[in-house]
Amino acid sequence: MADLTQLALAGAAIAGLLFLLIRRLYPKPLPGIPYNEASAHRLMGDIPDWFPLIKQTHEFSDSMLNITTRKLGTPIAQLLFPNIRKPLVVVDDAREIEDILVRRGKEFDKAPTALGLFGPMFPRATLSQYTTPALKAQKRLWADVMSPDFLKRVAAPNIHKATCELLDLWRLKAEGPGTALLNVIDDFRNAALDAIWVAVVGEEPGTMRYEIQKLRHQLSGSDRPFDQKPPVGEFLKEQVHYIGEAVARSSNSVSPELAQRVETWTPRYRRFRSVVSGEMRRAMRSAVERFQHLETERLEDDAAVDTCAMDLVLRRQILQARKAGVAPSDPTKDEAMLDEMFVMLVGGHDSTGNTLSWFVRFMEMYPSVQSTLRAILRSKFPGPDLPSAQAILDADIPYLDGVCEEGMRLSGTAKANLRQAIVDTRILGCPVPKGTEIFFNFHTDRETPHVDEAVRSESSRAAAEKKWNSVGAEHAWRDLGTFEPRRWIERDKSGKEVFNAYALPSLAFGGGYRGCFGRKLAMLEFKIVVVLLIMSFEFLPLPDEYRPMSSVETVFRQPDFPYANIKVL
Ligand code: HEM
Ligand SMILES: *[C@@H]1O[C@H](CO)[C@@H](O)[C@H](O)[C@H]1NC(C)=O
């Protein structure tokens, strides 16, 4: 009898302990921030609502917004997890997000979760670092690579060239003056890879040209096998593609950081590193060779010598060493430099390829925008040749600028990003403790709940009063789901149409000190490609089965149907 009692008591004690333990694992909402009541009363928090929706829609970020801010009808909310992970604060208000990114940098930094995705593979890249003095020095070294002058002189002509090759390829695919239904995403990615590699490393990978030769051979009906030796771009493409896939795979796992760490131990990752860094080191050696023979005076003359971003940075380092009277360090052993270049390749070509794929879908959906833009471009650039990069960048065409902004805004390629609060602070009136991770929606594609001016931050209110950027123009906020370039256009005092870059907060590239490093390059590239595409092809309606605008989101959002039905003009 006594034994049974003891057993029962022990059982009850264990059950009690288990009960307490499980209670501890229940989500613990942060005080003062809206959340789903029901989720707070179940072990898995919001996950049972969230994961099935991701499975259904393949959209990670949109699903999160759907079950938090949108469901609750609030501009700020929290996503609840079992108590092994702190709640994630979700913010969906474009104006306040821009204010936080641009003006409240002292209160927020990169979030650990965001760094975890790239950190294991590229530990020394800026993308993987908190905002420290070392990071700031590294950013300074690279900053001028994105100066308008450098981009125009070095990047723009190469982008133009890669794009003209893309046009040739598509003309071939349409067999001369015909029409063709194309899957565009790989072509856009290849063209973007050609452009970014030559802009960063200074050598032409030749991917596009190789595609053209391959297709020509195929069309010629020759029985000889295609025996052209693949250019370096073919290997690079494969390597960069692998990284994109690996990061995408890891980003969907329970611990992206761990998944990425494991990936770095694989032979496949090591092959990537050795192939790509081998190419980079070779290019570095020849640049250093060139610079070491130059007089200091010549080395200081920016315009004279740089053919790519890498040149500029190497030259700076050689100059710094000379001035300090020390021997320059061996740049081929500089892991920070290699990591930075890797990230520019990987981050710079998928994002651009996806955004361009969305763009051609928008052109198909909005034929009147397409024809308006084409008419304006034809009157500005009567031809017969297509305009040069210089001509495109120098022209003042408000409607074109509006089209580019709309393309960036609506495609939501990089839908969201994270920050962490590095001090106790408030967002939209809600207390946000130090260490909290915050998810910001960068995709301004629909109306969000009204926010009382009184709960906005001081800097946000001051910006509104001074009519700085980010408050936007009233007409610009209408029908946010539609592609309307005119929302970015205003009339100046003389009645002339002018482009207003501040008509809406632009969040496609995040913002502030940790905003997208490649923003100016990406905008410049987008503009050149848009002009050349619209002047060369008409984008006809797609068959119904290709028309859904659904997408799959990994690191970037990619359309499920990246198709174009082109007619050669
Ligand atoms: C359409 C093209 C692109 C889009 C939509 C895009 C978007 C973004 C976004 C949203 C961020 C995060 C910013 C934030 O959290 O505030 C980012 C960061 C970054 N992007 Fe881009 N990007 C594009 C093209 C490029 C290109 C061409 C490059 C390279 C030259 C590049 C290099 C980077 C780097 C290095 C960072 C990290 C910056 C840091 O941590 O300080 N991006 N990008
Ligand atoms: C959430 O997503 C589902 C499925 O896509 C949709 O039917 C529903 O309207 C969305 N709810 C909100 C509040 O956005």
From TrEMBL:
Presence of keyword Heme: yes
Molecular-function GO terms, alphabetical: heme binding; iron ion binding; monooxygenase activity; oxidoreductase activity, acting on paired donors, with incorporation or reduction of molecular oxygen
Necessary cofactors: heme
Protein's recorded name: Cytochrome P450 3A24
Sorted UniProt keywords: Heme, Iron, Metal-binding, Monooxygenase, Oxidoreductase
A Pfam family: p450
Binding, heme: C516
Record flagged with keyword Oxidoreductase: yes
Family, per entry: Belongs to the cytochrome P450 family.
PANTHER family assigned to the protein according to its UniProt record, in alphabetical order: CYTOCHROME P450 (PTHR24305), P450, PUTATIVE (EUROFUNG)-RELATED (PTHR24305:SF232)
Native species: Echria macrotheca
